[in-house]
Amino acid sequence: MVPIINLPATGAEARIAARNNTYTTSTSGIANTFLQANLIVLPSRFASDFRLLCLRNPVPCPLLAESARVGCFDELKSWLPGIEDSRIAAGIDIRRDAPRYMVYEDGELKKFQCADIVEEWSEDHVAFLIGCSYSFENALTAAGLPPRHAVMGRNVPMYRTRLPLCPAGIFTGATYVVSMRMYKRSEVETVRDVTRPYVATHGEPIAWGWEAVKELGIEDIHVPEWGDAPLTLEGKHLSEEDKDMVPVFWGCGVTPQEAVMKAKLPGVVLGHAPGHMIVVDVREWEVLEEKNPN
Amino acid sequence: MVPIINLPATGAEARIAARNNTYTTSTSGIANTFLQANLIVLPSRFASDFRLLCLRNPVPCPLLAESARVGCFDELKSWLPGIEDSRIAAGIDIRRDAPRYMVYEDGELKKFQCADIVEEWSEDHVAFLIGCSYSFENALTAAGLPPRHAVMGRNVPMYRTRLPLCPAGIFTGATYVVSMRMYKRSEVETVRDVTRPYVATHGEPIAWGWEAVKELGIEDIHVPEWGDAPLTLEGKHLSEEDKDMVPVFWGCGVTPQEAVMKAKLPGVVLGHAPGHMIVVDVREWEVLEEKNPN
What we know:
Two copies of one chain form a homodimer.
Chain A: H1 11-19, E1 34-43, H2 47-56, E2 63-67, E3 76-78, E4 101-105, E5 108-114, E6 125-131, H3 134-142, H4 148-151, E7 158-164, E8 175-184, H5 188-195, E9 207-208, H6 210-215, E10 245-251, H7 254-262, E11 268-272, E12 278-283
Antiparallel strand pairs in A: 1-6, 1-11, 1-12, 2-3, 2-6, 4-5, 4-11, 7-8, 8-10, 9-10
């Protein structure tokens, strides 16, 4: 008999399961309709520049929330218009509520997929939560356009590009990271329409078509920097000769992590392990479309 | 005797003078410390995509306010966190309060520098006010770094680039327009610091140095698409061989107008004449730094 595994169904359940180390794997597909978030934790003197980097580049770096105060790991300040601070993730412990973490010191990886960052967290740290594309993938599936990597049980391919971010203070020279999903050329406008309202989680694609590969400066579409290589449904390499299928590129939550690494910040920088997100209490439908801030 | 001309000293004075046609020229240098705004007026069916274009590209397209309702020319909805709707521009008449206007029909220029748009405004129009770089120029001058074009009584040079905007709905294929100011290489970090807080008016530069000219895809630095050609203080052409002086590029408020023109929208599109801005009631110091929306 196959044991029945109770997957976390809500943001609160996902955080408690991660805190208790009863859930330690990728959060892809769990707690459906609850927003998932990328985590970046920085020494406080870099917080102002990083906040500005996100606000100047909201498509790859959609800022959801940050520590309520310097050193604070259990209260958040919301950056989502209309969503109060306390509504983001009640009772959160930023140091323990992602299933797995990464630890960097002076720009070098020190710990890989560790269970928590209780020891590394200091009174000088500030945490930032950034939107994640898992949300609009649910919407694509619901619209009859499931991303191929999900259908095949693979990870989404992600690529470095040469498209520059708008710099902010210490964060200069950074470029977009993009995620890629293959669609029929005739489906692209529907794919754009379906993902457009997801403004807090990258929104509509930034580029599409084979010509975009060159324009973005992606060296080899078959060799993504993160995630799994894209394949046809028959398990073969993609071919540009298949003119009907085209790559579609979205801003990716790995972008701010790359910007932080590129800035070679001194001191201890912390983050979630890719794919192992912090799940929050906010539902997808609460952050559709841009809300007026007043 | 030279007649004493009373230049408008506040946003309200500037709007009334423009409305009465007693002020009909460029608003550069008037109503010091009051924010000036680019104006774009679109048929309502394009408003949602245009709003999203601005929110996805806040550096070249910083959204300050929009019509309170479709067809409304005398009330605004604020997009500035913490600034109430009624505080943007009390008693505004969007159709008459810029010194000069432009009228486009089906993507073609129909009227150049006309006095108002009372006839052209319809019940289906929506107006958008976008931040302008005049604000941070005051700050640069106050910091002892006056832009050279201002010192020489010339207009700032502006260039088309190949740097893509994040697309939004009908607005695809658009690229950044940038403004350029020359500075010593040793001054660039101070220039970045001085302009960084001006988040509602393009903020810090997006690129700098001679290498940026090529990276942005600017064809000829001596031939800007808008404004006056950049010159040395001796009135000569710039030279890349002068390694000490470098071009510094900012996102430019002409960007959203270019995006609208590129989209070839059907119907009547209205805007201010370049340089002839709508001056509002908000002071520069009220919009320094990004404010949390909640």
